[in-house]
Amino acid sequence: MTVHILSFPRQPLPDHTSWLVRAAVLLGALVWVLAVLGVRSLFAQVAPVLELRHGRAETPVVNSGRDPVSVTVTVNRDTATRDRIGAPVVALVSPAAFLLAPGERQLVRLHVRDLFAPGTVLRLVTTLTPRAQGSGTVRLVLVTRLASKVLVE
After folding, report:
1. Domain for residue 86, yes or no?
2. Most buried residue among 7, 18, 54, 128 by CB atoms closer than 10 A?
3. Which are the contacts of 33, defined by CB distance < 8 A and separation ≥ 6?
4. Cα first-last separation, the chain
5. Does residue 16 fall inside a structural domain?
6. Residue-level pLDDT, tens digit, the chain, 153 residues
7. Residue 71 lies in a domain
8. How far is CA 106 from the centre of its chain?
9. The CATH number of the domain where 103 resides is what?
């Protein structure tokens, strides 16, 4: 049995290749910076799964980031769409909107008025918007939307 090994002649890379490599490295670095900024904005903590018993549930919302955030909370139906957020559900959310300074926490209570069968999945949508610290500077503002799972029991 004869084994043939393919060998290709070595060709020098064109001059524009080094420019492309630098551009790819810079683009990769930019993606990492944006990813780190995005992860920093997720430091606000919300329970990933809540249990809705007798139409009621509660969860703490914690801002463990470095900037104050404006928080809004809604209850929606679960869907098969990419973001899993469907039509709003009639619910009393207390408080539905509030500000959190760094390190603060707020207990949010839900009272869903509609009746749902056990096993139904709803979504608690928590939107976190960083508050502007200074004026006159250009800032990248990343609004974070967390969709926690609410299981009806």
Report:
1. yes
2. 128
3. none
4. 69
5. no
6. 666 676 766 766 666 667 777 888 888 888 887 776 655 555 558 999 999 999 999 999 999 888 899 999 999 999 888 888 899 999 999 999 999 999 899 999 999 988 999 999 999 999 999 887 766 777 777 888 899 999 999
7. yes
8. 19
9. 2.60.40.10
Secondary structure of the chain in the HEC alphabet? CCCCCCCCCCCCCCCHHHHHHHHHHHHHHHHHHHHHHHHHHCCEEECCEEEEECCEEEEEEEECCCCCEEEEEEEEEECCCCCCEEEECCEEEECCEEEECCCCEEEEEEEECCCCCCCCEEEEEEEEEECCCCCCCCCCCCCEEEEEEEEEC
Cis amide leading into 68 (omega within 30): no
Please indicate, yes or no, if residue 30 is contained in any of the structural domains: no
